[in-house]
Amino acid sequence: MSSTGPAAVLFDMDGTLIDSEKLWTIALDDYAVHRGGRLSEATREHMVGSNMTRSMVMLLADIGLPTGPDEVDRAASWVAARTAELFHDGLPWRPGAQDALRAVRAAGLRSALVTSTIRSLTEIALDTIGREHFDVTVCGDEVDGRNKPHPEPYLKAARLLGVEPGECVAVEDSPTGVASAEAAGCRVIAIPCEVPLQPGERRVLRESLEGFDVTALSAA
Predict the structure, then answer these.
(1) Known catalytic membership, residue 14
(2) SS3 assignment, position 213
(3) Burial of 95 per CB tally in 10 Å (0-12, 13-18, 19+)
């Protein structure tokens, strides 16, 4: 990391910039009821930060249904459609997220959105978040199945930005996302939302993005 700060800032989306994990919970719960089951709290917790396919496998297994490719695809389509409805109704910001995005831009730093959410839903979310805040966006269906906690999402973002992962700071809220960013070689600012996060060698824990600025990035 340069003494002047990172080469780029890589933001997760759900639970980090927008408080959308609760909307995902509604969609997942609705699907479980639709199929005659109930999603357990433990399984929902393990889904946080995961991509659609992995989440659907966990969901189907949790409610006692087959987890073959066709079942997973049908479940994903249903949940995506329900989530789109919820996203269109409005997405609440996480505390300090808007100011953090503006601070990164004001500092002249390059930035990326790195999310496990599929492109179609990310585009809806970007209507709220603002596309102007990011030089590139990497979505969960754009990494050839190598989703978080695999490092590829963050490696791809760094490649697209033309920077080294080790010169980047990632901002994440979930154990899955933190693992992905750290495996890619990024430093991480970790801000728990739905599930707790533990201290680590390459991460700085914060309670929220409130007061987030370039000084915070340099300390990561």
Answers:
(1) yes
(2) coil
(3) middle
Distance CA 48, CA 103 (A): 27
CB atoms closer than 10 angstroms to residue 16: 28
pTM assigned to the model: 0.88
Q: Which residue type is seen at 136?
A: V
Choosing from 12, 19, 62, 173, which is the catalytic residue?
A: 12
- What the block records as the tokens of 156 is 């791809």
Which two three-digit tokens encode residue 16?
């980090």
12 classed as catalytic: yes
The span from the CA of 121 to the CA of 89, in Å, is 13
- pLDDT (tens digit, 9 = 90+) per residue, 50-107? 889 999 999 999 999 999 999 999 999 999 999 999 999 989 999 999 999 999 999 9
